[in-house]
Amino acid sequence: MSKALNSSAPTDSEVVFGILNNSENILKRVYVAYFPMVLQLIINNNGTADDAKDVYQEAIIVLYNKVKSGNFELSSKLKTFLYSVCRKLWLKRLSQMSRYGGDVKDFQDHLPVEDEADLHSERDIQFTKMEGALKQLGEPCKTIIEDFYIHDLSMQEICERFGYTNADNAKTQKYKCLQRLKKLFFQQEQRDQ
Amino acid sequence: MSDLQLTELIERYLAGDLSNEEKERFEALRKENAAVDSRITEHARFTGLIKQYGERVELEKRLNAIHQEIDVDTLVQELTVHPTLIVRLWRNHHSKISVAASIAVFAILSTLYFTGRFNKTTASNYTALSRKIESVRRTAENAQRTNQALLNSLKPGHRVTNPGTTGGSGFALTQSGYIVTAFHVVNNADSLYVQNALGESYHAKLIYTEPTRDIAIIKIDDKEFTGLDKLPYNFKRTKLDVGEEVITLGFPRDDPYYAKGYISSATGLEGDTAAYQVSLPVYAGISGGPLLDTKGNVIGIISGKQTRTESAAFAVKSSYIFKAAQNVSTDSTQNVIALKPNKAAKSALAGLSRTQQIKKLESYVFMVKVYN
Question: What's the mean pLDDT in B71-86?
Answer without folding.
Answer: 75
